[in-house]
Amino acid sequence: MTVPSHARKETLIRRILAGAAGCSLLFLGLIMVFLFMEGLPVFSIVTAKDFFLGFAWYPTSDPPEFGIFPLIVGSVAVTAVSSAIAIPLGVMTAAWLTEIAPKTVRRIVKPVIELLAALPSVVVGFFGMVIMAPALQDWFYADTGLNLFNAGLMLAFMSVPTICSIAEDALHAVPVSLREASLALGATRWETTIRVVVPAAFSGIGTACMLGMSRSIGETMVVLMVAGGAGIIPYSLFDPVRPMPAAIAAEMAEASFRGEHYHALFAIGMVLFLFTLAFNIIARQIAEKNRQALD
Amino acid sequence: MKRITMALSLFLVGMFAASPVPAAQQELIINGSTTVLPVMQKAGEAFMAANPGISLAISGGGSGNGIKALNEGLCDIAMSSRDIKNTEVEQGKAKGVTPVRTAIAVDALVPVTHTQNPVKELSTAQLRDIYAGKITNWKDVGGKDSSIVVVSRDTSSGTYETWMEMIMKGEKVAPSALLQASNGAVVQAVSKNEKAIGYIGFGYLNSSLKKQNVNGVEATPATALSKKWPIARELYIFTNGQPAGVSKKLVDFLLDPGKGQKAVSEVGFIPLQK
Fold first, then answer.
1. Residue A275 contacts by C-beta under 8 Å, 6 or more apart in sequence?
2. What does the pLDDT profile of chain B (274 residues) look like in tens digits?
3. Chain A residues within 8 A (CB-CB) of chain B?
4. Helices A260-294 and A202-218, interaxial angle, to 10°?
5. Cβ B175–A251 below 8 Å, yes or no?
6. pTM value?
7. Angle at B203 between CA B192 and CA B51, to 5 degrees
8. What is the value of ipTM here, to two decimals?
């Protein structure tokens, strides 16, 4: 009597869960279809070459110019700067937390770092605009404090928690037996960390870095507020840039519905989507490959 | 279908105008320029307090979007920081809408610099060359020997459009210009940077900035109203046909020196001469 009702309950729960999983897939699918539907028409206005490699972004001039090369370079540049700061900082913090810090310290510090991720991006942007920008002008004699470096620094601020938290989980998951074996063989603690623990957790650390980078490239508010917004190719760390999300956020409200500018902005969204997709695929690949290596 | 709804709404508006007893809740949908938005919000509050039967739904989406919404019958009043374009008049005609313009305030754009900048005056030609990237050092316009950091508004804003029309005259703003998303962001960027120049609406002027004279004229409410100030523009609202009924009530309120025009100066624009 109870067995069939149990079985029915099981099936019901299984279906509900499958439905929930299906929902997010469906939403992602619909968003993608919409994105490409609204973005692709831009190629009837400009050629793909002029769009991707064009240097001039004058969407409202007459005639308009839709060259997004400086925007792509801007996005790549801020991501590179932020990664250069956030990855070493995040991974080293994670290593310190798992290998060196006492348990009690770790129990306090880790949630605090994760709390950093909860800082609203507009607050980080405001800090960059009001405090950091004038400071950069004073310290580095930069023409403007609203620049590539400032944006990279603020983005690093936001991606350190992601990187640190995931890398810490990965390092923590390395079996104690591995560490003990290494120490038993006469390796020092430093050697154990660098040669045994970190390589064993490599896939997790790689995933952490990739997720941190995809967060940087997609972040909008911070780059809108502190990157400066000039559509040029940066030649120095202190040149202003106009990353793709900033252009979309600043211009979408005024772009006329289904007009050329509107389609161009959606096409930028498409490019941005492909970038994050690539980062996520790479993160998966790293995870897969190293799982096999460990086995 | 559209014609039926339009006829119906005209009928309703007519009924309201004719009847001495105010109907139940009447709603006016207002959309458009974010430059005009603060005026409308400020005046709108007082208007609704004075006319309990009428409610205003005010949203900002930009001048272009407002006029488009008016043409498509999606709003009753469009706010705009620029005059209507010929293409937009045509679009309205195609849908049976005749946008009618009413000026409600004057907005003057003022070039501003850091308070420590010794430069006091620029000509419109110099401004154009600075923004086009032809003049890149302050010493070329009588200032210190230092590079000029050009701060502009985003290409989509009404303020940028006005600047393009009145100063740039067909030239393009150099790509190296810092494009900021709001008047407030320009104030922030310029007040914190000795090398910077920017332009903002008159209402955003404060003591953290130095306003520049242009062509020998100082930016004041008087010079803006008399059109002596070279970068002044009128702010408009557009209605379908001459304002009538509830719309007319609101327009009259906005133009009243003691009511709407007070709101205009309170949010930092220049009231129309009366």
1. A75, A214, A217
2. 445 554 545 444 444 444 444 445 788 999 888 778 888 988 999 999 999 888 998 887 778 888 989 999 899 999 998 888 888 899 899 989 999 999 999 888 899 999 999 999 999 999 999 999 999 999 999 889 999 999 999 887 778 878 888 899 888 899 989 998 888 889 989 998 999 999 998 878 889 999 999 998 998 888 888 888 998 888 999 999 898 888 999 999 999 888 889 888 887 788 886 5
3. 55-61, 70, 129-130, 133-134, 137, 143-146, 224-225, 228-232, 240, 242, 249-251, 253-257, 261
4. 170
5. no
6. 0.76
7. 140
8. 0.79
